[in-house]
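Recall the central idea of this unit: under ordinary conditions, the amino acid sequence of a chain determines the structure it adopts. In this exercise we apply that idea directly, starting from the sequence alone.
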Amino acid sequence: MRKLIAGLAASLVCIGTAVAQDDKEANKLMIGDEAPRLQHVDWLQGGPVSSWESGHVYVLDFWATWCGPCVAAIPHMNELYKEHTKDNVHVVGVAVWPNDRMTPTDEFVSEKGGKMAYTIGDDIGGKTAEAFMAATGSRGIPTVMIVNQQGRLAWIGHPMDGMDDALEAILAGTYDLDAEARKFRKRAMMESQVEELTMKMRKGMMNEDWDQALAAIDELVALDEEQFVGYSVQKYMILVTGKQAHDKAHRYGRDVVRNKMWDNSNMLNAIAWNIVDPEGEVDEDDQDLELAMMAAKRANDLDEGENAYVLDTLARVYFRMGKVEKAIDLQREAVKYSEGQMKEALQDVLDEYEKEMSTF
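Accordingly, the structure predicted from this sequence is:
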């Protein structure tokens, strides 16, 4: 079941090897606090950003070349940069948590050219990740932090989860920093409970104590349904692959997709992909293709047919249903909307589908 955890994380955020931290160090930096400076950054493009200029807004994107969701967010970050430069908004990508297998940041940025035109820097010695990511308790990338016109940390989150609305409110002067600070502190207070429940869930999965894992997931979702809805995917997968409770999984999957995920493209894509992943845990005979189709089609509609990850998932669902021609059409679209290593991987899948079609 370890692949299940990794698969879910990969569809939303990437968890780095450098996130282990003393609880005393987490949440030293809160929304509303004065933002620390970017002192330990090797500037690769643009910069340096050595201070927070009064009246200017800084959108800090913490990312890595090895992180698929980070790469998927780059076009949006680039559009934001182009749209808001006139508003004294600075988009700054800071690469963190490097590993030996990744494409070096400078090579990646050079290959992107104008498709990644905003300021880019490499963290030096993990010090920037420590000052921002560890200090705020942020454990996954991409993570965006917005520094407002007064040099205060105003917003923290996933770039596709409210960033645009927060930025517009900050620029318009309607952003309620005090309210956001209170919400952030409330979340910080929940962290020890979340850590305990997460550990309980992981131990349950490692020991194949499915009831323990499910109980922990239910408690997490009860704490904050919006924040922890991602664990609903995990619950569904445990019901299918661990408990082998297919009837219960059938009912639960439809309920969670329709009532908790219906407007969340990332989550819809996650549950659909976990069902049809050819290297996943669900046996072909147990794959609920009807549920996967419902979720993937809705995700594709939400993304207006332009998200390569979602298109790839939807194509796989059609392929599993034996509708190879439709799968090929969708996979071609996925390739069109992808770049770099992702494009190569999706092309390999397209070749697989076309080879299958040639045998008919």
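DSSP finds 14 helices and eight strands in the chain.
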